[in-house]
Design goal:
There is one protein chain. By secondary structure, the chain is an alpha+beta fold. Helix content is 29%, strand content 18%. The chain has a four-stranded mixed sheet with strand order 1-2-3-4, with helices on both faces. β3, α2 and β4 form a beta-alpha-beta unit. The longest helix has 16 residues. The two termini are 24 Å apart. The relative contact order is 0.21.
Length: 96
């Protein structure tokens, strides 16, 4: 699975070990400037988009705000992990 950071690699390993159903969108799959790190496909009614936010630079924070707004505007289910600040990620949605 191609990943863009060590944080994504940790999460990918966790998803695989947990036998979760997910996809890793590639850059040519981006919709409306959204390219989630992963998409859980086993959570029931709708897919859950997973974002790992690993930095805290001004440019990165601005892009994070834009992405969060786009997810909200499109009504997408979002799980996120502030990896730069939280050593452990939040609980993932349970599979259905």
């Amino acid at each position: 699975i191609p990943v863009d950071s060590s944080h994504e690699a940790l999460l990918a390993c966790h998803l695989v070990a947990g036998d979760r159903c997910f996809i890793k969108p590639l850059h040519y799959d981006a919709e409306d400037h959204l390219l989630p790190d992963f998409v859980l496909t086993d959570t029931g009614v709708s897919d859950t988009y997973l974002e790992v936010f690993g930095m805290n630079t001004p440019e990165y924070v601005q892009r994070k705000r834009e992405k969060l707004r786009l997810y909200a505007d499109q009504g997408k289910r979002l799980w996120s992990w502030e990896a730069h600040a939280e050593a452990v990620w939040p609980a993932l949605p349970i599979p259905s």
